[in-house]
Each structure stands twice: as C-alpha cells, then as structure tokens.
Amino acid sequence: MSSPVAIARSVSTPARALAGLAVACALALLGPRRATAAPPASARPSGAPVAAAPFVVVLDPGHGGSNLGAAAADGLLEKDVTLALARRVRARLETAPGVRVVVCRERDVLVPIRARARCAAAAHADLFVSLHANATPAGVAPGSQRGFELYVLPPEDVEDDATLAALAAPPGAGVWAAHVVRATAERSATAARKLDLRLRQALGERLARGVRQTGAALDVLRGTGAPGVLVEVGFLDNVADRTLLTSAEGQDRVADALASAALDARVAASR
Fold first, then answer.
1. Phi and psi (nearest 5°) for 204?
2. Which domains, from first to last, does the chain contain?
C-alpha cells in the first residue's frame, strides 16, 4: 500500500502560490497549540493526578448564509443539511467524557473559508471535520450518482504547507516544523479511513465512494494545524440519498457514524 498521504494525485494550481494563502497557512500551522504540560509539582497537592487535556473535535458545517451549496429540486439546500448534521454529531460527542466540541457555524451565516480554518486552529483541534453534501456534476445525468466520499489534502498541498511551515519557523526549527505538517497529514488519512469505515457500517458498502485527494475544493483543510477530513455525506439530487439526509432516522445513522469515528480517532491519538 502506498503512503497514506499519497492516496491519489491531483493537479496543482497556481493559486497555491498566492501570498495571502501562504501567510495564513504558515501562521495557522505554527500557531500555539493547547498546553499539555503538567503544572509544577509545587502548584498541586502531592500525589494529585494530572488532568488530561480534552480531545477537541471541530465540526465545520459547510456553506451557510448566501453560500447555499448544492440544492435539490425540492429546494433542500446543502447549507441546511450540514448544519443539522453538525448539531446531531455535537449532541452525541458532548456526552463522551474527555471530549470538547467546537462548531464553526452555529447558525445560517456566511463563514469564509479561512475563518473556518482559523476556527480549528484557535480551538487547538485534535480533529477537524468539514461536513458537505454532494450534487451530480455537470455532464452527468442528474440524480444518477449517490453515496458518501471523504477527502484529505493531496501530497503536493501537504508539501506546500510543510515548506511554508519550515520557512516561518525560528532558526533551527524548520525541519521539525515541516515534520509536524507531514505527520498531521498522516493522521488525517488515518481519520478519513476511520470515518469511511463507520459510514460503510452505517450506510452500506455499496454507497462507499472511497477516500480521495482530488475532485473537491480542499482549501478549508489547509492551515488548521490539525488532522482534517472533508466528508460528502450524499447526493442531494439523488432521491434515495435525499430521503436519507432529510429523515430523522437517516440523519441519526450518519451522525452516529461520524461521532463514533471521532471517538475512534481519539483512541488512536492516545496510543
């Protein structure tokens, strides 16, 4: 099997060289992480246990406000589906001990892509999940595709971010900064596989379209400083998928799978 980062290849674009994105990614990647060091012995009673830092899951309901996302013929909008799912996933994760949940969009408002990445960075996320719903692309019969798919950054984006992190690091720390970016990409691939497995178990193997690195806009996964996965939960223009995503039972199945995968990632991170 190839390296978990190199799941698929995609064509790089000149836009990666834009200075604004470079600075934003570098700053977020090197932003301060949550303090995990124990307090000095003099500051706590002798023999007192050290509290473990919570596992932080950041949920990003895609689109919002004037950014409607995909739309179904009956008027169902992606921005509404993703927010409903995020609320269900949060409700499940908030009952798990040692887990903190942050949602980047709590209501129907427009949130810029970079603000979503900053949301994850500011929360010191241990896992970032961007939720989306699909639509059949132009040139393909409407409603003919269905199922879920997951995306992580392609190798060239990872290497771009590693280079930016190395350049922005203090003298002598560049190699380590680049290593952290690459290691985070490896954890993203691991998290994507866990999400894929749980969704397969919940929705069925025939709906699984795999883990990909090309075919979607993935800028939201850059600059978070955390393992990140973009999840397309289904096709709104497919009758069966739309029924699944609009029913309480279907939303519960998807939310259960996403929450379980996040807890799987927490267990893996603790090893």
1. 110, 145
2. 52-269 (3.40.630.40)
